[in-house]
Amino acid sequence: MISITECPRDAMQGIKNLIKTADKVQYIQSLIDVNFDVLDCGSFVSPRAIPQMADTHEVLSELDLTDSHTKLSVIVANEQGAEQACAEEKVDILGFPFSVSEKFQHYNTNATRQEGLERINKIQEIVQKSGKELLIYISMGFGNPYGEDWSTQMVEEYVAEFAKMGITQIKLSDTIGAAKDNDIAALFSHLIPKYSEIIFGAHFHTVYSDWFSKINTAFENGCRNFDGAIQGYGGCPMSQSDMVGNMPTEKLITFIHQNNLESQINMSAFQLAFNKALTLFAG
Fold it and tell me: Which residues lie below 8 Å from residue 257, measured CB to CB, with a gap of 6+?
């Protein structure tokens, strides 16, 4: 079975015109009905950095999770954000973006990589006390546009650090759509068997026509957890490079069907959510 995390937060965060809170609630509620494993639905970060997510508390308060098995995830960048997220009863998972790139760590969280590691240690303590889960996104996990050193070995070294901290969820993030098949294969084939206590996932950004090889290569090398956004909307506005969209969720579903894999997706509800996305992101 493939686990899908739908990412309306990632789809919305780069949109300059603020989406009405009521419209976000309606859209995210339609995604809850699809029965995704996880919804990455908001963030507790500075509203100056990501103004589109400033109403995450209000959105969460309006969501109806009755009879839903979908977990809700939010992004945090420091301990203050973690405290806010942990105060939200409906939040199950806190995601922290840690970057292999020093420059991107600064752009994204106003911290160095070392400060990022220190924050993760402190956030892990907060999360464990709350009974929630901490997920680490390894941003720029497949390269970066800044000319900095990058290698699969660097990524694996940071995974080793997170394993020592007791982190049990890690997603390798292709922040700028730079992932090459051989790097995808090398990372997942090495990491998944080595760290059996960690659930690894893939957060790919890609141009719409170039989706298959990334999913297929990750799947062939043991990855069973993928992030997507309907129609590939979104991308990372903090990357200081041309924004490349998310992995289209409909392509993930196509991959599932083509390979006769099990899925919990409610296809009729997905079609309704897909149509809402076309309307919501049209402007």
Answer: 263
